[in-house]
Every structure is written in structure tokens, then in C-alpha cells.
């Protein structure tokens, strides 16, 4: 078991070298991280390709054993990992944040290890028997985001390892240390070459997507970058799983109880201070309960402390980086100019630090307003009034994204009638953004393609093979 300082020393660049990493809550330098080159990437991929046949040959049972041992190592180092994550990403230790994320890494790793994947009998008619099996793809390139760097990294790593693939991980430059630390802990038990991290810039990421020895690319991030990855991967025909941008809509039906749903609405929108792909990002509320929902959300917001993530009392942190802070700030300023009614927040929380922006509820906005139409990826929620459910459904479906959506109602049957008409990979009822390791997850339209989690997620990290006889 390592403490924070020991773990940080293990993964940091030597003093005076590398790229400085700063705590977004304070601006203080945490450490420096080594910036690797395309040549380093090529060497890592070569090592992964060399290690892959032996890793696959171990079979499911031995890989499961080693994956569970890796989960044990994460648990043993969980507090040090959570502190590093909090310092680098900004999210608080408590609430659905840093400790939660490290725990999710353990949960997803163990779930991928435990999920059965048996051969499927597709024909058995007396004269022929055909079975569908899944073999390893080969070498997987995993390109992760900065918002949930450890957890989303594990969403990519765990099914890939289970299926017998080796993995080369390229984390975001904003949160490299967190992923370096997670992989270092796992590599205390995994064979050499099976799991490698490359910390580098966009050039390195582009090379990973286009490398001829990468058999599959998994990417979570913006739609624009996803499109570039598709182009980069074309020449080597790498398989792809892409979880891209979203602008999730929630529809509150007139029979909903504002007081009972307010807490779940809040966390659906503002988990990780709104920096979540499948967060609730635009809320359509029926006219009859519009003001009540606003007041209940305002009341919940007042109970949620924001500040430095190492303070055990806080559950909301800063924006992770200046670019995202500017996006949120600009969208809110534009909404105010368009007549948006600011219920809470509405301007930077400079008393807390340079990258803090308070929870901001903006009412009386309309479709077409940038805060409604553009993914804010931060703590600002537009609330839109509707009177006819057909209009709300049309509004929810009008954008070229479809990661998630939600319907809120006291009548689950009525909610389901609306849910089936929403164009999204997942539609939640009376909650938003809840994921489960056995529930397939993926987007439609410009929110990407491919499924993660559960049996379908394992299949996506394999290649089908029919054995007929």
C-alpha cells in the first residue's frame, strides 16, 4: 500500500523536467509528468503486440484471477489514488466524486471479470451444429477524457483485458497523473506489456488511432475529436467504440412531484460539477409545475457546498481547466443577454479560486439559445417551459446528439410512453446518468456508436468466430 507522496513519486517526472500539472482548485503545482513521443508510443505498441498472444493464451480463468488481483491492489491504494485524483481533476473526495470514482474502478474491473460469456449455439438441427465464439481483437488503443479519467479509463481497460487483448492507454493531458497512477498500481500484478500508459500530446493520440498495429480504438470525448479518430483509423480498418458528446434532455411531466424529484434532478445535472458526458444538460418542465420545480432545485442547490476537494465537507469542485471555465462563463453571459432569468449563480465564484463557477440555474430560455443548444459541460442548467408534451418530445429530439435522456413522472407507465419516443442510447425514468456494469451503454446520432458494459461490452472487445461442424 502506498501513501499519496509515495505514489506521486512513482509516476512523476524528475524535478525540473516534464510538464507541470496544477491543482485546478488552487493553481498550485502538484508534480510534473513526462511527455512521451511518437517513438515511445511505437515501442509501447510493439511491446503490447508481443505480449498479447501469451495474455490471450492464459484463458479466461487465469485472466479473471489476475484482474481480481489488480482490483485488490486498487483497493489497497484507494485513498492515495483518490487524493491524487482530487488534486489533479478538482473533484472533491466526498460525494459522488473522487473516492466514488476509485471505487467504481474496482467495481467495473470485478464486474468485467465476473461476467460470463459463453459460446452461443446458432444452429443445431441434427445435421449441423454451429457455435458463435469471441476471440481477442489484439491490441486496443484506449483514449480517455479528463472528467472521469480513472473510471472511464477502466470502462475501456477492463473488458479489453478480460477478452485477452493488451491495452495501450492515452490519457488526457489534463489528467495524466491519475491514469499513470491507476495503471502503475494494476501493473504490480499484471504481466509486462499487457497494460501501458503513454502520456503525450494530440500528435501521439493521432498516431495511436492510425497505428497499423492497433486493432481497436476506444475513445470517450468530443464529437469533433471522434470524427478525427474515424479518419485516422480508416487506413488500418481498426474497430471503433466511440462515446462522444451529448446534450441530454430531461422532460418533467405535469404529474411529477417537484419536491421528491429535485434531489435526483440536481445530481443528474451537476454530478462532477456538470462535467459529465451523460449529465442532464437541458430541462423541459411543464408549465403547471415550472416555478415549483425551479424553487425546489434552488433549495437543493443551497445545501451543496463547493470548494477545495480535499475539504471533507465539499461535494462540488472547480471546473477542471480554463478552457472549460470560459465555455461555461460565456454561455451564461449570453443567456443573460437573451433574457434568461438567473435563479442561482450566474457569475464566477472568484472568492473560491480562479476556476470555480457556482451552480447556475437559468430559467425562461428557449430552443435555439446557445446555453440550450450547445453542450455546456459544466454547472449551468437551462430550464425551458413547455405546455404540450409533443413539443417537449420534439425539442428533446431536435439536436444531432443522443447519448442519454430522462423522463420524470409519478406515473411510470406514462413516463415509458414518452421514453420510447426519445432519440437517445439510454433513457432513464425518475433519474439521470445512472450507469451499471451490466447495463449496455452507448449513444446514437453524433453521440457515437458501439456499446460498453456487460456482455455486449465484452463482445465489442472481441472478434466473432463461428465454429461449425
UniProtKB/TrEMBL annotation:
Residues 19-460 form the Aldehyde dehydrogenase domain. Keywords: Oxidoreductase. GO terms for molecular function: oxidoreductase activity, acting on the aldehyde or oxo group of donors, NAD or NADP as acceptor. The keyword Transmembrane helix does not apply. The active site is at 243. CDD domains: ALDH_AldA-AAD23400. This is Aldehyde dehydrogenase family protein. Belongs to the aldehyde dehydrogenase family. InterPro entries: Ald_DH/histidinol_DH (IPR016161), Ald_DH_C (IPR016163), Ald_DH_CS_CYS (IPR016160), Ald_DH_CS_GLU (IPR029510), Ald_DH_N (IPR016162), Aldehyde_DH_dom (IPR015590), LUC3-like (IPR044086). Pfam families: Aldedh.
Amino acid at each position: 500500500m502506498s501513501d499519496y507522496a509515495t505514489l506521486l513519486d512513482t509516476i512523476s517526472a524528475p524535478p525540473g523536467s516534464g510538464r507541470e500539472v496544477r491543482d485546478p482548485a488552487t493553481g498550485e503545482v502538484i508534480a510534473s509528468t513526462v511527455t512521451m513521443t511518437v517513438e515511445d508510443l511505437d515501442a509501447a505498441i510493439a511491446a503490447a503486440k508481443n505480449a498479447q498472444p501469451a495474455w490471450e493464451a492464459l484463458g479466461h480463468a487465469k485472466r479473471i484471477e489476475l484482474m481480481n488481483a489488480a482490483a485488490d491492489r486498487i483497493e489497497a491504494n484507494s485513498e492515495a489514488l483518490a487524493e491524487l485524483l482530487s488534486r489533479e481533476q478538482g473533484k472533491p473526495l466526498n460525494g459522488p466524486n473522487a473516492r466514488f470514482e476509485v471505487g467504481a474502478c474496482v467495481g467495473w474491473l470485478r464486474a468485467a471479470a465476473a461476467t460470463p460469456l459463453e459460446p452461443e449455439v446458432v444452429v443445431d438441427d441434427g445435421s449441423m451444429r454451429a457455435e458463435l465464439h469471441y476471440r481477442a481483437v489484439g491490441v486496443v488503443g484506449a483514449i480517455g477524457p479528463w472528467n472521469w479519467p480513472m473510471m472511464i479509463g477502466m470502462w475501456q481497460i477492463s473488458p479489453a483485458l478480460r477478452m485477452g487483448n493488451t491495452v495501450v492507454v492515452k490519457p488526457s493531458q489534463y489528467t495524466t497523473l491519475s491514469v499513470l497512477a491507476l495503471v502503475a498500481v494494476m501493473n504490480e500484478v499484471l504481466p509486462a506489456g499487457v497494460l501501458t500508459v503513454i502520456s503525450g500530446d494530440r500528435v501521439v493520440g493521432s498516431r495511436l488511432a492510425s497505428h497499423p498495429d492497433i486493432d481497436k480504438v476506444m475513445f470517450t470525448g468530443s464529437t469533433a475529436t471522434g470524427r478525427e479518430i474515424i479518419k485516422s483509423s480508416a487506413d488500418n480498418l481498426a474497430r471503433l467504440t466511440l462515446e462522444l458528446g451529448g446534450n441530454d434532455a430531461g422532460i418533467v411531466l405535469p404529474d411529477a412531484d417537484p419536491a421528491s424529484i429535485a434531489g435526483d434532478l440536481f445530481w443528474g445535472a451537476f454530478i462532477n460539477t456538470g462535467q459529465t458526458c451523460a449529465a442532464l444538460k437541458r430541462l423541459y418542465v411543464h408549465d403547471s409545475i415550472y416555478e415549483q420545480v425551479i424553487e425546489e432545485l434552488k433549495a437543493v442547490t443551497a445545501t451543496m457546498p463547493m470548494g477545495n476537494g480535499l475539504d471533507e465537507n465539499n461535494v462540488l469542485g472547480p471546473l477542471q481547466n480554463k478552457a472549460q471555465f470560459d465555455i461555461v462563463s460565456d454561455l451564461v453571459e449570453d443567456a443573460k443577454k437573451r433574457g434568461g432569468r438567473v435563479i442561482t449563480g450566474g457569475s464566477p465564484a472568484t472568492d473560491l479560486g480562479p476556476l470555480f463557477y457556482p451552480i447556475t440555474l437559468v430559467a425562461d430560455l428557449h430552443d435555439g439559445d446557445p446555453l440550450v443548444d450547445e453542450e455546456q459541460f459544466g454547472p449551468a442548467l437551462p430550464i425551458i417551459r413547455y405546455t404540450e408534451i409533443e413539443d417537449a418530445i420534439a425539442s428533446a429530439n431536435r439536436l444531432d446528439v443522443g447519448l442519454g435522456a430522462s423522463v420524470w413522472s409519478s406515473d411510470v407507465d406514462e413516463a415509458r410512453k414518452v421514453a420510447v419516443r426519445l432519440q437517445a442510447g439510454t433513457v432513464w425514468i425518475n433519474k439521470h446518468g445512472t450507469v451499471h456494469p451490466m447495463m449496455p451503454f452507448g449513444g446514437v446520432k453524433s453521440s457515437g456508436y458501439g456499446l460498453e458494459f456487460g456482455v455486449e461490452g465484452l463482445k465489442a472487445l472481441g472478434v466473432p468466430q463461428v465454429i461449425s461442424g
